[in-house]
Amino acid sequence: MLLRRMAGLPAGRQGQSIMELIVGLGVTTIIVSASAITIAAVLRSDIQAKRLQVATNLTRELSDNTRAFAAADWRNIYDLIHGSGNRYSFDTSASPFTASSSSETIEVEGVTYNRYFYVENANRTLCGEGVITTDGTTACPQIGATGVADDPSTQKLTIVATWPGTETGVRLVEYVSRSRNAITRQTDWSGGSGQESFPSSGVNTQFASSTGISFTGTPGSLKVVLP
Predict the structure, then answer these.
(1) Alpha-carbon gap, residue 184 to 152, rounded angstroms
(2) CA distance 123 to 126
(3) How far is 158 from 181, CA to CA, in rounded Å?
(4) 101, 110, 155, 173: which has the highest count of C-beta atoms within 10 A?
């Protein structure tokens, strides 16, 4: 008999008790399911937050390394191939460490992170001595004039760390500037006049026509202190 007629309850009361039991089980199932969904969401959120923190720490570490790399020799950074398609990491096994033209993988608590940085020129208003701008370069007759020029003493660094399941990861954008004075001495003027624009695209043997330098006369040198 059904639970021995529900422990002797009257037939009407027995049917009511069965319905109460079914409803109670249904409510319990709903509560347990909702709790499981909530707990799973919280766990996923905690995992993502932890991975985000690890990636953030990895970008900060790489940022410190790039700054040290630039401080040791400005051309370490300036001479790298520019653009977002040129990814770099560091080989820190040797001292001083060197830049490697590829990203690096780092495993932390079973998760593999991909880390790299790339370099871009930094443009400034006032033909190179104003504020940093995202505008493209324009014709610039001289420093301080109206226009936009690349500042060879400032570089834009973008440092990225990603992990499986995310496309963007953590992206840190910062600017690094040459902070120490540098001195260059030029004795070869055989390129002649013609270096009228500033800054130049690279080291050469030319000079601006306005300087009036006579490269066929008495040999000499020009000492330039770079800021």
Answers:
(1) 15
(2) 10
(3) 25
(4) 155
